[in-house]
Amino acid sequence: MMEPNKIRPRLVYSPGYDIRWLGLEKLHPFDSCKYSRTWKVLLDRFSDKLLSATITPTAATAELLQTIHTPEYLQQLTNSHYVAQVLELASLDWVPSGILDRQVLQPMRLATMGTVIAAETALETGIAINLSGGYHHARRDLGAGFCVYSDIAIAIASLRQSGQLTATDSIAIIDLDAHQGNGLARIFECDRTVHILDMYNQDIYPQDRRAIARIDRNLPLASKTRDAEYLDKLQQHLPSFLSSIERPKIAFYNAGTDIYEDDPLGRLKISAEGVLARDRFVFQTLVAARIPVVMVLSGGYTSESYQLVAKSVGEVWETWGL
Predict the structure, then answer these.
(1) What does the mean pLDDT of the chain come to?
(2) Catalytic residues
(3) Which secondary structure element, helix H or strand E, spans residue 269, and what is its range?
(4) What is the arithmetic mean of pLDDT over 52-67?
């Protein structure tokens, strides 16, 4: 059980998280370089204290990926046309699969391992933040929405394999990305030890009814929802969600910044102050409940996304890490 006075936040980050290749980062609204931008802001602010608390991951192995994904699906990722569809970048059809694997999928495998390491670390230190990950649309046998590997599901499988979690231990997923986390709901459709709270814009992708039926605390929002309604709903439901289930051994927090008011895809109207207030409330609630927490970045489609993340992570460090 996590003791609040023993929390030692850790960060998981690799320069290899960024996707930079022939201007690819400019072809998709997703800021594929927000990871290093966030890191630079944090490093400038906290310097050696951050370096000493940072872990650098290696890439997830094929064996690890197969704890969740089918061999047939992973084989499909050698097909450039299929990968282009998953990434929503049809122009990548012409790119040799080996180059796509090295320049695009390898960073995602690094991020996936980052979530695994963050999960292992959170059980020891109380809080761990992976400066990437949150690929919540990926299913066992299907990629979609710029999500190739289901990093949270893989982390759960890895903890179970290692014995750090048992098959009956309670696990919480708190998904506050603007998009419904349908991939995770599909993967854990029959696994009732995993409890999902998902608050999302119901008017946008993916509108997956089968996945919605699996969500334990389903909190759909309308487009243009603003701070007051958003935060009121979160403050009402997160504590009651946690108290309604067996105390989770670990919580995964999908902290998408695509709820931000200027985000072109999330279509909500949450201010920068609202994003920070959201993250503050989630961390305070989980720490008070003595539940170890893993934060992953998930979506965020504006040039300000990395600044929003840096503010939230910076506050975690000021509150518990210094």
Answers:
(1) 95
(2) 137
(3) none
(4) 98
